[in-house]
Structures are given as structure tokens and as C-alpha cells.
Specification:
Elements lengths: L1 H9 L6 H13 L9 H23 L12 H4 L20 E4 L6 H6 L3 H11 L3 E4 L4 E5 L5 E3 L10 E8 L7 H6 L3 E4 L2 H8 L9 E4 L2
Parallel strand pairs: 1-7
Antiparallel strand pairs: 2-3, 3-5, 4-5, 5-6
Length: about 210
């Protein structure tokens, strides 16, 4: 709880940047060519322009669409507040089940087929680290935790171009650095076949992962 409070408090702006940005917006709509613009109309246009800017900025501040480098880590949220010196112990670990929606959500079809950083991030955020069992290979795979891959158009295949997940086989030697370097990631399309493999009881999902059906 305290970590969340500190995050919100420290995120507040304390400098003159807000006022400077307001003047910047005013200069944008009230330039030399529009010097006769009435103050009331100028204020109205500034508010409209500011709303547009805020909407565009939402793409980079919404947690669902925020670049990975800007997300708070668990370590940052659960920092040591030094309360142990007073005999106070706080359990700040997150609890509860992680729900994986094992079906194509409404936003996914467009996200899969349009090559945009925002789409890649949203897909990555959903599928990263998920395991599935490939019966053809008789092997459990884990989806790559670093990035997706963009598959170019293939002939008359209407399902391409699209984003595909990259997966590596799960083995006991995963802790061996040399083995990690030799592993080649395999591309898998995001479709019903992948969802069936994720549902497979042999996929070795962690206990706190709940598979949700449509």
C-alpha cells in the first residue's frame, strides 16, 4: 500500500513545466497570423488542442500501452521503508490469481495485423511467459519474454502479415547460460491452434495462473 502511495506522490510535477506547456499550446493556436483572434476564442481553441494532446499522450501513459522501460517494477513498488527497526513487518507482495484469457479478445485482431509499437506491446504484455504444450514436438514451450516477431506477407495467405509469438522449449538446463545462447526461438501464430496448446493440461502452468475460456 505504501509503495503505491509513494509512487503517486513522487509522480507529481513540482516544476514550472505545466505553465510553460500551457504557453506553448497558446502559441500554437495564437500565432502571428492570428493576432486578431479574440481571447475567448483563443482560450476555447487552446482547450480543444490541449484535449487532443492529452488524448495522444494517453498512448504513452496508459499502463496497457506504456513502454516497458517506463513501467514500475515490483522491486520499486516494494522498497524497504525501514520499518523493521520498529518491529513492524509489512507483507506487500501481490496476491491472487493471474487470469489468462485463452481466446482472441476484441482488440487483438487489429493489433495482430497492424505493425505498431503499441500493438506489439499489448500483445507482448498478454502472452509473455505463457507456456503451452506442442503435441507434434512432444515438448512444453514458453513464450519469449523480450519481444514478438513481425511476419511479412506470405503469398495469398490472408492471415499475413501479422505478429507472431516466439517460444523456446522448456528444459531442466534453462539455468545454464551456455544452453540459453544455443536455444533458437520458434515462431507460433496467435490463433486457435495456439490457444488449444495453451489449454493443454501438459503445459505446466504455474498454480497462480487461471485459464479463462470465452
Amino acid at each position: 500500500m505504501f509503495g503505491d502511495v509513494a509512487r503517486k506522490v513522487l509522480a507529481q510535477l513540482t516544476g514550472p513545466g505545466g505553465g510553460e506547456r500551457n504557453w506553448q499550446k497558446l502559441k500554437y493556436v495564437w500565432d502571428g497570423k492570428r493576432h486578431s483572434l479574440a481571447p475567448e476564442k483563443a482560450e476555447k481553441e487552446v482547450r480543444i488542442y490541449e484535449g487532443h494532446v492529452r488524448e495522444m499522450a494517453q498512448l504513452s501513459t496508459d499502463p496497457l500501452e506504456m513502454p516497458l522501460r517506463r513501467l514500475w517494477t515490483q522491486e520499486e513498488v516494494t522498497f524497504d521503508m525501514g520499518l523493521g527497526e520498529y518491529g513492524i513487518t509489512l507483507d506487500m507482495d501481490t496476491t491472487g490469481m493471474v487470469v489468462f484469457k485463452c481466446y482472441e479478445e476484441d482488440w487483438e485482431k487489429e493489433a495482430r495485423t497492424k505493425k505498431l509499437a503499441i500493438n506489439e506491446f499489448r500483445l507482448f504484455q498478454k502472452y509473455t511467459g505463457v507456456k503451452f504444450f506442442d503435441e507434434d514436438e512432444n515438448q512444453v514451450y514458453e513464450i519469449c519474454a523480450t519481444n514478438l516477431e513481425w511476419q511479412k506477407k506470405i503469398g495469398k495467405d490472408a492471415t499475413t502479415p501479422c505478429y507472431v509469438v516466439l517460444a523456446k522449449p522448456v528444459s531442466e538446463e534453462d539455468d545454464d547460460e551456455e544452453e540459453k545462447e544455443e536455444v533458437e526461438y520458434e515462431p507460433y501464430r496467435i490463433n486457435d491452434v495456439l490457444y488449444d496448446m495453451i489449454r493443454d493440461s501438459r503445459s505446466e502452468h504455474p498454480e497462480d495462473l487461471q485459464i479463462e475460456e470465452k
